[in-house]
């Protein structure tokens, strides 16, 4: 690879744990391209290989095979350079329990060049009120905000966030979303993992969905959702109601569920058929595919009515 227009680029990245008969391939040849200045969400169920991938990008572990460039550099060979320009939020972190929040941030700031002033970090993460509280006295969510403040202390141009909002209440989660948007607006690149699909919908310019060590979908949320079936559900005692063509029909208790590639014409036909038959469709619900419904289908490797383009 000679040219690196991306903040992160991998080609054929593999990561295997163990050797011989015990070897387990957690990452199976992924091509990942994270554009500069974008928020990119890496999604997947537990064990899909997200953290194993991030650890390679962070230079914490070498790739078993494939090419990896982070800010155009090799994350292992050029680790010092990459670390200086990157902020990493791990899933778990350790702090000295007896230090206050301010002391913790000060200590952290002393380890990076061009550090953000501690008071600015406190304010940015809404921690000013807690500046003199000892770390051991913080709630899980407050602790996570200190984690984030440390990650951003060095004003990184690339920010890697492994489940940044796990354990945060809805208000704090939204505050982190604002922060991520601000980071992007200031020109930083953000790669994040999350199990909250709404978070990916809210934040991500690009999404990659991993399953069993492979990237199985990628694109914008709109691209990923396009072509996936919408769902119409209703209850009616009339089993003889003529149902529109082009729908995959199932029954869940007393609820009829139609999975359809194209919502509007099928819904129109259904409503007309119901009117003509004088039938009331109780609890009628019609919804387009969401990132969540696609994610669940992809995670379960479910066949789609009209398959979205695989990555
Ligand atoms: N040190 C290890 N030795 C052997 N297998 C491992 C090791 N670390 C992870 N794995 C396995 O690799 C696979 C991918 O794990 P990984 O932690 O990368 O998934 P993940 O997508 O980050 O999951 P989560 O959402 O739970 O964090 C899993 O099957 C896991 O059990």
Question: TL;DR?
Answer:
This is ABC transporter ATP-binding protein. With 311 residues, this protein is α/β, with parallel strands linked by helices.
Principal-axis shape: globular
Q: Which series of helices and strands comes N to C? A: EEEHEHEHHHEHEHEEHEEEHEH
* Strand line-up in the sheet with most strands: 5-6-7-3-8-9
Q: Report the bound ligands by name, code or SMILES.
A: adenosine-5'-triphosphate
The chain-level mean pLDDT equals 90
Total beta strand runs: 13
Residue share in helices? 25-40%
Number of helices: 10
Backbone structural class: alpha/beta
Largest sheet: 6 strands, mixed
Strand fraction equals: 25-35%
The stretches of 5 or more residues where confidence is low (pLDDT under 50) are: 305-311
Estimated radius of gyration:
23 Å
Question: What is the straight-line distance between the termini?
Answer: 21 Å
Protein name: ABC transporter ATP-binding protein
InterPro entries: AAA+_ATPase, ABC_transporter-like_ATP-bd, ABC_transporter_ATP-binding, P-loop_NTPase
GO molecular function, one term: ATP binding
Domain ABC transporter: 8-237
């Amino acid at each position: 690879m000679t040219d690196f227009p991306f903040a992160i680029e991998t080609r054929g990245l593999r990561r295997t744990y163990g050797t011989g008969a015990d070897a387990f391939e957690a990452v199976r040849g992924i091509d990942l391209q994270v554009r500069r200045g974008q928020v990119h969400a890496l999604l997947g169920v537990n064990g899909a290989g997200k953290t194993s991938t991030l650890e390679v990008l962070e230079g914490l572990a070498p790739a078993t095979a494939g090419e990896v460039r982070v800010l155009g550099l090799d994350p292992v060979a050029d680790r010092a350079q990459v670390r200086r320009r990157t902020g990493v939020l791990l899933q778990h972190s350790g702090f000295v329990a007896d230090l206050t929040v301010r002391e913790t941030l000060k200590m952290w700031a002393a380890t990076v060049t061009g550090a953000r002033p501690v008071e600015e970090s406190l304010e940015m993460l809404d921690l000013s009120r807690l500046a003199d509280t000892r770390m051991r006295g913080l709630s899980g969510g407050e602790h996570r905000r200190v984690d984030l403040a440390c990650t951003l202390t060095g004003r990184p141009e690339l920010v890697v966030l492994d489940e940044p909002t796990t354990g945060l209440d809805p208000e704090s989660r939204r505050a982190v979303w604002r922060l991520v948007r601000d980071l992007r607006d200031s020109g930083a690149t953000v790669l994040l993992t999350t199990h909250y699909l709404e978070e990916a919908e809210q934040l991500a310019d690009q999404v990659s969905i991993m399953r069993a060590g492979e990237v199985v979908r990628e694109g914008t949320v709109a691209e990923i959702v396009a072509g996936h079936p919408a769902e119409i559900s209703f209850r009616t005692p009339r089993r003889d109601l003529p149902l529109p063509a082009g729908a995959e029909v199932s029954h869940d208790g007393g609820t009829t569920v139609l999975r359809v590639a194209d919502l509007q014409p099928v819904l129109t036909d259904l409503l007309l058929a119901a009117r003509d038959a004088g039938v009331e469709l109780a609890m009628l619900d019609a919804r387009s595919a969401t990132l969540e419904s696609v994610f669940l289908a992809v995670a379960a490797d479910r066949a789609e009515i009209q398959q979205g383009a695989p990555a």
